[in-house]
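Contributing new records

If you add data, match the layout below exactly. Sequence lines come first and carry their own label; structure lines follow with theirs. Keep one chain per record. Anything else will be rejected by the validation script.
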Amino acid sequence: MAVSTPSLDNNMSSTPAPAPKPLHISAQPVTLQNWYKKINWLNTTLVVLIPLYGLYLTTSTPLTRPTLIWSILYYFMTAFGITGGYHRLWSHRCYSARLPLRLFLAFTGAGAIQGSIRWWSANHRAHHRWTDTMKDPYSVMRGLLFSHIGWMVLNNDPKVKGRTDISDLDSDAIVVFQHKHYGKCLLLAAWVFPMAVAGLGWGDWWGGLVYVGIMRACFVQQATFCVNSLAHWIGEQPFDDRRSPRDHVVTALVTMGEGYHNFHHEFPSDYRNAIIWYQYDPTKWLIYLFSLIPLYPQTYALKTFRSNEIEKGRLQQQQKAIDRKRSTLDWGVSLSQLPVISWDDFRLDASKEGAALVAIAGVIHDVSAFVKEHPGGKTLIKSAIGKDATALFNGGVYEHSNAAHNLLSTMRVGILRVGRRSRFGRGGGYEVGGGQGWEWACGC
């Protein structure tokens, strides 16, 4: 007896189609019902709400001189925790540091309230790997405000961010400990410690919390955020202009030397951001000074990129600038676009009334508009019409200047077909194509 079985089509038709996954909140339009879901409330509290509250508290909290000095000192300490620690030590491995300095950098970095070493470095490595793309966590292509602070205060789809390798960080005991206990580290380094120093030192507990704790952290945050925004927005690009990073002294002043960002993106493993002695990079100076401590230097294996490669990058950018400027100038008709004219035709055309054709270095030039302007006199230039004046032009009578060579190139009208090969002096160029003309030294 035949046994009937359900057909494959029936099985497929009876299986419900999987429901489409909802869009991440960042991809959904803003409505009155979901706007609050788009905000990362933890980050917004730490980088916006608490600083605003601290700003309000300053209106009723006197600022004493010792607290001001302590605020400035702790500002630079925590800023160095980010620039010298989070950035150049852990994100890029630009140098190595011994345990005391590593502990100091992990502590002061936590006091800057910018996330753990592991979280910060993972984002920064993604930023370098995926610069100016949607996978860049704080891409300036999404707007200056987004790259400065928007990426912090908004809920972004974690699947969009580019992936990077942080296995080295996961094997670092200090990084792992700080990441695991980051909340406690933040509370202690950002607020309790600076408040305690001011309180125990000169009795200003509240001022220590408001100024050295809250407001100091706010300034460090905004200064660091400028590396993500201003350093990709204003300044020059002396090493590469294919991506947005730029060098600017103002950004460097704000960020403890991180403003030479074009150099940094080209040579991220270099412990320096500024390579010229007068450029402001206190982070570089501190890393170097720590390597000079007698007996037990705190930094070692400072990495620098080969100067030969740095100069090649600089020279290539200069050449690009020259080429752009060159393209705006009149260098005459390209030799490849000029007609090839025989010697007999050249002589025939030169003999016509009003014609003033001269052959120089295998190229025919119409000098009719220049006869009266010729500094050597019109008689001299007329004597060369219909002739090969290469020897006269290149020293036979006068060694013409570079300006004369450039001006002559704007008068080209043809290539002279000749049967001989010759090499000419300065500006003459060389023959190509078996007597089909010469390419000028300028490359036109």
